[in-house]
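1st attempt posting a full record on here, be nice pls
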Amino acid sequence: QVQLVESGGGLVQPGGSLRLSCAASGLTFSSYVMRWYRQAPGKERELVARIGPTDGYISYADSVKGRFTISEDNAKTTVYLQMNRLKPEDTAVYYCDAVLASIYEYWGQGTQVTVSS
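the predicted structure (as tokens):
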């Protein structure tokens, strides 16, 4: 059974930092593209960052470039999202996603990030 479990969300002041983690189990982690999405109230789900499998390809949404960093630890089967210089508009539920060949896709339950003073 595949499980993706996010953690690390919370309340942070503007300009602050958080690191999200997504622990994966039940899948061949190194074969999957790992992605972070977010969804703010009343908005569509947005792809924030992705990291490729063996080639390590990384991409970011324009809104987070230079502030967020995605990384993964294959030994721990965990993907991270380091979020710096957070803004109120980063407030959302953040979801971890694992996809293989556009056929197999799994989602975590989400973790809330709130940026507010």
